[in-house]
């Protein structure tokens, strides 16, 4: 009995050892070659009598139990195998995902590098723009310096001229004590306003007749005439040879502003020179802002006050502007075009006669057509105290001495000595010759006049044209 129990226990231990690790079983099942081996350790015993083995009930039940357990283990083994297969496919999926993630990462890195280079390029562009703006400001400062130098020279020249004229006077007095002073203008009939004259036969007579500073003494004017005449060609259509010159006194505030109303709305309430840049263009230019008269916010586009600037100029000069910003000047048709393109602007014309009487003419809208349409004038309704001398010029192209766009057979700019929106020819011309004293004597209607205010043969003392958005 004791021997039987020992054999059974040993068998159980061997079985248990053998099925403990299913890894081993798995490997064994995978490797069909290796088979399960069992070792029965039976202690050597000397048989001394009859051997009695009871295998009827106990062994059978144990074997059954073992078989059941083995079956369960096999089932578990199958389950584990299924799980391992599932895990294998999961591993493959994870690997694929990792690979995809890596490629996504590299794509993101590439895109980031691209974005970075674009940002750097944009920053470089910004730097370049700032550099160009800086250069422009430097150029403006240099122009200012040159302008100041020029003014100094002008002053010196003026002093020298007056010294020379006084010396000449003294010489004349010594040589001929009863001689009369030279008259700069021949006494001729002045045409009535609003009347169109046939100038064609007199075209050659005006060949050397250009604007001059009427504020200078007669002898000085004669000297200046001599200088100008010497430099002019002898044809009627010849432009003045002096180059356009705009001085640049100190700009009030940095800007640039869209117009003077923009500057006023931003708190710049003192009149002066401002840097302007209308919307839609890169053109930077300076203009005089009138910030006190008529509620301020006015961009001055033209001013006459002392005859210091010659307005008998070419198309290009009228296009780009000329004169002194703090004195007599013309802002320029191209600048006026861009300014009035920004919205609805009104025009105010201020006039003053030699008795100090001031009047004005306002037009509730103003804009110009582009240069391709010769800066044609588009004007709104008139109101004011001066009388309406500009509506007659509405829808007319601009004419200069070298570009005849008027309705007259000849060139009105030749006779009236300045560029204007001539018709046949004019009810007004604020760009004519600035004559001192009002009523002037000239062969042509070429003064600074506004026919509804003092007629065409009266040259006004002060005039200005300015614009403001509605
Ligand atoms: Ca014509």
Automatic annotation (TrEMBL):
Pfam families: Fibrinogen_C. Residues 56-90, 136-170 form a coiled coil. One of its GO terms (cellular component) is extracellular region. PANTHER family: FIBRINOGEN ALPHA CHAIN. Residues 251-470 form the Fibrinogen C-terminal domain. InterPro entries: FIB_ANG-like (IPR037579), Fibrinogen-like_C (IPR036056), Fibrinogen_a/b/g_C_1 (IPR014716), Fibrinogen_a/b/g_C_dom (IPR002181), Fibrinogen_CS (IPR020837). GO terms for biological process: blood coagulation. It is found in: Secreted. It comes from the Eukaryota. Keywords: Coiled coil, Disulfide bond, Glycoprotein, Secreted, Signal. The keyword Repeat does not apply. Residues 172-187 have a biased composition (Polar residues). Residues 172-195 are annotated as: Disordered. Residues 1-21 form the signal peptide. This is Angiopoietin-like 6.
């Amino acid at each position: 009995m004791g021997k039987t129990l020992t054999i059974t226990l040993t068998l159980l231990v061997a079985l248990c050892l053998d099925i403990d690790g299913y890894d081993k079983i798995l490997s064994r099942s995978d490797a069909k070659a290796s088979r399960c081996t069992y070792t029965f350790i039976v202690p050597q015993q000397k048989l001394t009598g009859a051997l009695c083995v009871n295998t009827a009930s106990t062994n059978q039940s144990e074997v059954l139990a073992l078989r059941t357990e083995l079956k369960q283990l096999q089932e578990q083994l199958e389950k584990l195998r299924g799980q391992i297969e599932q895990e294998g496919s999961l591993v493959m999926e994870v690997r694929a995902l990792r690979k995809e993630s890596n490629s996504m990462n590299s794509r993101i890195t590439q895109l980031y590098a691209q974005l970075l280079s674009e940002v750097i390029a944009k920053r470089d562009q910004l730097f370049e723009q700032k550099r160009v703006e800086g250069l422009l400001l430097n150029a403006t400062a240099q122009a200012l310096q040159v302008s100041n130098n020029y003014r100094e020279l002008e002053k010196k020249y003026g002093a020298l001229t007056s010294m020379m004229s006084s010396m000449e006077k003294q010489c004349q007095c010594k040589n001929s004590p009863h001689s009369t002073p030279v008259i700069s203008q021949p006494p001729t009939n002045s045409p009535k306003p609003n009347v169109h004259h046939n100038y064609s036969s007199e075209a050659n007579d005006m060949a050397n007749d250009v604007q001059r500073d009427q504020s200078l003494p007669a002898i000085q004017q004669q000297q200046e005439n001599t200088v100008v005449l010497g430099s002019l060609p002898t044809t009627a259509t010849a432009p003045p040879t002096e180059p356009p010159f705009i001085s640049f006194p100190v700009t009030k505030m940095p800007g640039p502003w869209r117009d003077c109303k923009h500057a006023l709305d931003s708190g710049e309430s003192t009149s002066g020179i401002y840097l302007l840049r209308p919307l839609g263009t890169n053109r930077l230019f300076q203009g005089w802002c009138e910030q006190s008269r008529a509620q301020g916010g006015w961009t001055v586009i033209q001013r006459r006050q002392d005859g210091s600037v010659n307005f008998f100029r070419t198309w290009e000069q009228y296009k780009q502007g000329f004169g002194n910003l703090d004195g007599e000047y013309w802002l320029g048709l191209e600048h006026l075009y861009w300014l009035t393109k920004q919205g609805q602007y009104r025009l105010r014309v201020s006039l003053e006669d030699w008795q100090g009487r001031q009047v004005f003419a306002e037009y509730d809208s103003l804009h110009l057509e582009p240069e391709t349409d010769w800066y044609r004038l588009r004007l709104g309704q008139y109101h004011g105290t001066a009388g309406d001398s500009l509506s007659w010029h509405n829808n007319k192209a601009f004419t200069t001495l070298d570009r005849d766009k008027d309705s007259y057979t000849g060139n009105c700019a030749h006779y009236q000595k300045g560029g204007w929106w001539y018709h046949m020819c004019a009810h007004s011309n604020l760009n004519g010759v600035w004559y001192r004293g009002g009523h002037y004597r000239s062969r042509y209607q070429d003064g600074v006049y506004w026919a509804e205010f003092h007629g065409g043969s009266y040259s006004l003392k002060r005039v200005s044209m300015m614009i403001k958005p509605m």
